[in-house]
Design goal:
Blueprint lengths: L1 H4 L3 H8 L9 H6 L8 H9 L3 H7 L5 H8 L6 H9 L5 H8 L8 H9 L5 H7 L5 H9 L5 H12 L2
């Protein structure tokens, strides 16, 4: 922008053209998987393993089958699951899987990450929001990226009506 204002169009083009796309759409996120250099079976096997480097890479996987296996790995910690739940953009099925997981759905930071994710399916958000603290509901009600239906539910929960 500064290069454009200074009349240096060639500099602006160099800075703006060809850079990495930083915000893919949900459809792109559903199909592109930069961590999928291996087959789904190989990634599922790695998701059962103990290699922390591979597990950290698999947290970003967009295949539901891999995430399902990963959530069952005893090496996984809450911070890892929060990372999965907060991923943007993500597939709604992945958020649903985390939200219904017997171990992770009861953890408050995980519920907060799910409730704050704009890609959370409304049915999951409606079920989850009543369990959040007021300050988190306030943040959700004011977040422009969250769908209006969910923000209005957060406002209703805050006012108690």
């Amino acid at each position: 922008a500064a290069a454009c204002r200074a009349g240096r169009e060639e500099v602006a083009r160099m800075l703006l053209v060809g850079g990495p796309k930083t915000n893919p759409t949900v459809a792109e996120a559903s199909t592109e998987n930069e961590y999928a250099s291996e087959s789904v079976g190989e990634r599922c096997t790695a998701a059962r393993g103990r290699d922390r480097f591979k597990l950290d890479r698999l947290l970003h996987d967009r295949d539901l089958r891999v995430i399902r296996v990963l959530l069952e790995n005893p090496i996984l910690v809450e911070r890892d699951v929060v990372k999965i739940a907060a991923m943007r953009p993500t597939r709604p099925e992945i958020i649903e899987q985390v939200a219904k997981h017997r171990k992770w759905a009861s953890r408050y930071p995980v519920r907060k990450a799910i409730g704050s994710n704009p890609h959370t399916p409304p049915s999951v958000a409606r079920r989850l929001l009543p369990s959040l603290l007021k300050q988190d509901l306030r943040a959700i009600s004011q977040a422009g990226s969250i769908p209006e239906e969910i923000r209005s539910l957060a406002r209703r929960l805050l006012t108690g009506s």
